[in-house]
Design brief:
This protein is an alpha+beta fold and 152 residues long. The chain has helices at residues 3-15, 60-71, 79-101; strands at residues 28-30, 40-46, 51-58, 109-110, 114-116, 126-135, 138-147. Strands 1, 2, 3, 4, 5, 6 and 7 form a seven-stranded antiparallel beta sheet that branches. It starts with a helix and ends in a 5-residue tail after the last strand.
Length: 152
């Protein structure tokens, strides 16, 4: 497991039971690659030496449950409420991870989170890792994409 992976999982653990629902199993590194066609929020962490795209993806119904759990409201939620809430979760996970690896690249900065629907294609020359997060609300996937040269 890379330093990035460890930092990202520490970010998940820091939010578990708060804005993230409790995990029902230990996060598992998936070998099948990035799950196809799952919506989710993404944020970039970019520095002079390190760069990472971080995503939290799941079935939309799971993201809706995550949002309802976060804001304590279970009546119909708008797409904007859901996409904003999930973007905030991934932004906070990225912020925790950034604090843990900042010594390796003090120039590291966070970008603005964005929400994507559809298939993600990973460019050649990058490394991706996917952790399955089994929660009380359903399966989510924490995805990281970094330059192959980033050992962070």
């Amino acid at each position: 497991m890379t330093q990035w992976s460890s930092a990202l999982l520490d970010g998940v653990r820091a939010l578990e039971g708060g804005i993230l629902p409790p995990l029902v199993a230990t996060p598992q590194l998936q070998t099948q690659g990035i799950p196809a066609n799952l919506p989710g929020a993404w944020v970039g962490l970019v520095g002079e030496r390190l760069s990472l795209q971080l995503g939290l993806v799941a079935e939309f119904v799971t993201l809706e449950l995550l949002t309802a759990n976060m804001i304590g409201r279970h009546e119909e939620l708008s797409d904007v409420e859901i996409t904003d809430a999930v973007a905030e979760v991934v932004n906070v996970i990225g912020g925790v991870a950034k604090r843990l690896v900042i010594e390796a690249d003090p120039s590291l900065r966070s970008g603005l989170p964005m929400f994507l629907f559809g298939r993600l294609r990973v460019p050649t020359g990058t490394t991706s890792e996917v952790f399955r997060l089994s929660t009380e609300l359903g399966e989510m996937h924490l995805v990281s994409i970094s330059d192959s040269g980033d050992e962070g």
